[in-house]
Design goal:
Layout (H helix, E strand, L loop, with lengths): L3 E4 L1 H10 L3 E6 L5 H4 L2 H9 L9 H11 L3 E8 L5 H15 L3 E6 H7 L6 E4 L3 E7 L5 E7 L2 H17 L1 E2 H5 L1
Parallel strand pairs: 2-3, 3-4
Antiparallel strand pairs: 1-7, 2-5, 4-8, 5-6, 6-7
């Protein structure tokens, strides 16, 4: 049972600059409605790749934070074959890596074998978890904060297993 409380999207956004050391994400969804609303997604569908703007505010913030020595890492669980939204995110990994994130991928079959959760979350400084809530249309509807040390440890164990069994994104892309 999760002991959590909801936070606003603004509070969630602020966590990416307030963190002291690291932010780690597990991405488990096949698609994200937000992505599909972006011009970059339409470009990806038309051309099979995206010309990412590495000077947009998100990229600038990530570069600034990594320059301060903060780590941003994620593991994306992917299907075999990749879903369309996962292929887009694989292209997006080029942008994330260019601004300092480390992106790895893990086959869904392996994630299931390991018993990894199907929920998306961020683990900040190995002390607080932000659980991302989605509706049936794959739209993010909220964020719940988990601070109970026992629950946080469970998510840290998920991180360790996912990281150990995943591979760098470009091994899948290549």
């Amino acid at each position: 049972m999760h002991v959590s409380h909801p936070i606003s999207f603004d509070e969630f956004d602020g966590m990416f600059t307030a963190l002291r050391h690291s932010a780690w994400r597990l991405e488990s969804r096949r698609r994200y409605a937000w992505d599909e609303q972006q011009g970059t997604y339409r470009q990806f569908l038309a051309e099979g790749r995206v010309d990412w703007d590495l000077n947009d505010p998100w990229c600038k913030e990530r570069r600034e934070q990594t320059a301060l020595g903060k780590r941003f890492e994620r593991v994306r669980i992917v299907d075999e074959p990749l879903a369309e939204g996962q292929r887009y995110l694989l292209d997006n990994a080029r942008r994330n890596a260019a601004v300092g994130e480390v992106i790895r991928v893990l086959a869904r079959s392996k994630a299931d074998e390991l018993g990894l959760p199907r929920e998306d979350f961020w683990l900040f400084d190995a002390r607080v978890v932000a659980l991302l809530r989605f509706d049936g249309a794959d739209e993010m509807t909220g964020v719940d904060l988990v601070t109970d040390p026992v629950e946080v440890l469970r998510y840290a164990q998920v991180r360790e297993a996912a990281w150990h069994h995943s591979v760098p994104y470009d091994e899948l892309a290549g």
